[in-house]
Amino acid sequence: MLKKTKLRHSEYYNMQDKYDQLYSCSLNGNNFYKLIDIIGSEENIRLAYRNIKTNKGSKTPGVDGLTIKDIWHLPDTHIIKEIRKRLNWYRPQAVKRVYIPKEGSDNMRPLGIPTIWDRLVQQSILQVLEPICEAKFHNHSYGFRPNRNAHHALSRMISLMNRGRQHYCVDIDIKGFFDNVDQGKLIKQLWTLGIRDKSLLCILSKILKSEIKGEGIPTKGTPQGGILSPLLSNVVLNELDWWVSNQWETFKPKRYKKAIDFREYARKYTNLKDGFIVRYADDFKIMCRTYEGAMRYYYATIDFLNKRLGLEINKKKSKVVNLKKNASNFLGFKVKLVKQGKAKHGYVAKSSMSDKAVQKTKQILRNKIKEIQKRPTPQSVLKFNITLIGIQNYYKYATTIYINLTEISYTLLKSMKSRLKNSAEIIQFNQTPRKFQVKAKGIRPNTKVYSICTVPLLPITGMHHKNPWNFSQDICSYTKQGRNKVHTNLKAIPKDVLKQVMTRYSPNRSIEYNDNRISKYVAQYGKCYVTGEVIGIDRVHCHHKIPLKNGGTDKYNNLVIVDKYIHKLIHMTNEDKIRASLLLLVLNSERLDKLNNLRIKAGNEPIAI
User: How far apart are CA 19 and CA 478, in angstroms?
Assistant: First the structure.
């Protein structure tokens, strides 16, 4: 849903064509020199605000203590002027250091939280850099990229095992990747990708060297927590992707037209390394057919990471795995080959939750049960259910998901029984509401379910396995055909009309008002709230349900799009003028009720006929 929303935002602000052009030029191998002009454009900055305000991070203060709520009352012109000023002479503020638990470890992961103004600068840069970099990234890199996710990476790995007979896996763990990136090398990699705007490269260098409060200026690494960090990490490892890929997958022979014919020849008569890379952020696998080939990749990759990228590996966690004998952990899943007579090659991939994922899930759900014990309210039960649904939806692609969830459920059985005995009643699953039953799959009607304040807890085992799907390489946010696979364009409102609405913003109003005004116009399909008819572009007015002088805000729920003459009628108090307007507009009882509702909220008397 988030991917579709961001695409729509680009269309609202008329930036999609510009991003498409950048992507196309990057595919053609063009270099880019005046990117700062695009980054500092009004539309791009206003879009950056639009994209950043929905992020959870926008509500987290930096070292200056400011959040998105401290700037949304400012006019568009002020925001644009401030961002342009910073781009012209960029001096990033210090980064706030925060520590969060590291997944699968007792250690803490350091995050750097930039100030809200620096986040807006980074978002403005990201929107322009992303289409350029996307054109150069490898097909089988799945982390922190538009339209791709962890399940696509898992599916690719399983496909290589089942169909490609890649039964050996090179597992390499990079030691402290985000903290050890060579910053000078990263800037050179951006230059190689065609980003030749020296002003922009200077800004990116300053972002990398932003002071960390209490720790000083870093000499290496990309700041985790920054908006640009995921993209920059992909730029660093893109070189690894193509190095591995060019060894075999994308190697172009001169004599052979068909890749399959060449590969059969190459396996017998050449020293090319047979292997395929699957990467999600800094977690990657190289899938090979033979143990000898896997060992060659293992040592060659360690050498490449060290000499070319300046990165070290964790030798304890790095190894070559025979997937017929042992499992390999990837993105919270444990993957192994098991014998199956009906399979084409005698073996089939089997996946399950990793041991760490099972233990972590038990701990998370145990903590939620403790919260319910302390506060037996509908809200605490809802939190438990939402958390469980999130876990089920992520791990449902494991073939043994039901067995894993059964183990977790059995472990938590005693805890639930002892902690909820005083606050919960036990009912049968078929006694729960129909909407609740739809959320759980495969649960028998007479299964016992805990209910607190008439709100039932979802059964932990209520999820079936779903086969993961490979990512379709036709999907792309920066081509018309690619977008059609993600969402349908804004058919309800022509682009030229939307563009006019966007450009007719009020410079003296807050950026929050102007942004929500566009959203409201699109949500109402360009129609008046009262009459239900499409409004001419010169008659589009945005009305505050509760006026600002009466304590109203510029928030989305307080705005409504109405016809210019309806807007006048909402605020009109002269009875003669009201009668004349009613004769002109001819409102039926339903429309009059809507009008009176708005008049009452605005502090005026309803109109009686």
Answer: 6
Distance CA 151, CA 468 (A): 6
Q: Which two tokens stand for residue 271?
A: 């020293």
Give the Cβ contact number of residue 520 at 10 Å: 18
Q: Measured between alpha carbons, how far is residue 161 from residues 118, 156, 353, 517 in Å?
A: 44, 9, 18, 51
Q: Is 528 helix (H, G, I), strand (E, B) or coil?
A: coil
The stretches in the chain having pLDDT less than 50 are: 1-2
Between CA 149 and CA 405 the distance in angstroms is 23
Give the pLDDT of residue 489.
53
CB atoms within 10 A of CB 154: 24
C-alpha span between 112 and 222 (Å, rounded): 10
- Whether the CB-CB separation of 543 and 110 falls below 8 Å is answered with no
Q: Residue 447: beta bridge partners?
A: none
Amino acid sitting at position 3: K
**Per-residue three-class SS string for 178-237:** HHHCCHHHHHHHHHHCCECCHHHHHHHHHHHCCCECCCECCCCCCCECECCHHHHHHHHH
In eight-state DSSP terms, residue 537 is G
User: Which positions ≥6 away from 509 have C-beta within 8 Å?
Assistant: 75, 76, 554
pLDDT at 203: 96
Q: Quote the CA–CA distance of 166 and 481 in Å, as a whole number.
A: 32
The DSSP letter of residue 546 is: S
How far apart (Å, rounded) are the C-alpha atoms in residues 262 and 96?
A: 54
Give the type of residue at 41.
S
**DSSP, residue by residue, 375-440:** S-SHHHHHHHHHHHHHHHHHHTTSTTHHHHHHHHHHHHHHHHHHHHTTT-EEEEGGGS-HHHHHHS
| CA of residue 329 relative to chain centroid, distance | 23
What pLDDT, on a 0 to 100 scale, did the predictor assign at position 1?
A: 44
Contacts of 602-609 with CB under 8 Å at 24 or more apart are 602/544, 602/545, 602/546, 602/547, 602/550, 602/570, 602/571, 603/547, 603/550, 604/570, 604/571, 604/572, 604/573, 605/573, 607/578, 607/582, 609/582
- Name the residue among 462, 463, 453 with its Cα closest to residue 372: 453
Token pair of 181 as six digits: 């990136």
